[in-house]
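Forwarding these from the shared drive since the link keeps breaking.
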Amino acid sequence: MRLLDVRRLGLVCAAVAVTAGMVVAGCAEQVPGTATTDPAEVAAYQTSAAASASAAASSKAAAAQTKAISDNCTQFPTTTGAGVTAFNEFVTAHDHNSPDYADKREAAATTLDNAATKVETGVTAAAGALPADLAEKFTAYVVAARELSAETRKMTYSSQVTRLNDASRKINQARTAVHDACPSR
């Protein structure tokens, strides 16, 4: 039995590969003509691409709106609750002629101003992502809180309370409107 010579085997393999390459290369042929596009296919592609881009933009806007609503509605009760508490403490001090009346008045006004600023900052940070009607309700609260703060600062023991009560009603209505417009948790 004779062993295969490695050099001869390598030579045979190389010759087969070159011959096969020539055959395959000889089969390649170019197609004559000019490439064109089908206008209907181009229009369909453009419509599909536009719809896809529109869907992506719509999805992004919906996500931004959901985040803006959540961010603003979640912090609202806590932020405004501090103003309610401070104002009620001031009213109690006023009704009882408490010695810390002036301190309670200033604390109430400052807390209301701070709540208004925080709510306003949240609406501004949402950069138009909040639904317009909800943004208007937040803004109405901001205006009412600043009005109540201003009326609170004007109060003395002998002041008429009519304007203070009116401002208090406005802020309560504005706070309720926001509460009712925000999704329940």
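-- next protein --
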Amino acid sequence: MKAMRQLTAVCVASAVLSTGTACASAQATPVPTAHRIELADRDAGRALTVHPGDDIEVRLTGARDRGTTFAWSAPTSEDPAVLRRSTLGRTPAGGATARFTAGDRGGTALTARRSCRAAPGSRCPHVVATWRVTVTVR
């Protein structure tokens, strides 16, 4: 009986020590957390660095004025393996939204174009604005 109690005590002590070791090693290695970066019209020309798993949300604002709409094309990634688009949306006023998730390490760019769309009887200037952000995934 005494031997059985000693064996039980050894088993319990062993379990506590192994759990403590596992907890200590888990605390020593920080778990990376994904970040969310928001980009807008004003970020054109920007360069940024993100990490795999990070999300980039793009929100571009269109404009309506007297029969014309200055509308954005869908934001796209030049390399979908580096930045994969997961959502896409548009607004009636010509805005565009998209969410990208960083994947493979490397460099790419997010791009969109804003152009004029005329309502019947209206005219548009032949101006196209380009929005571009360079992204490096490390």
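Confidence is low (pLDDT under 50) at residues 7-26. The CA atoms of residues 20 and 26 lie 10 Å apart.

- D.
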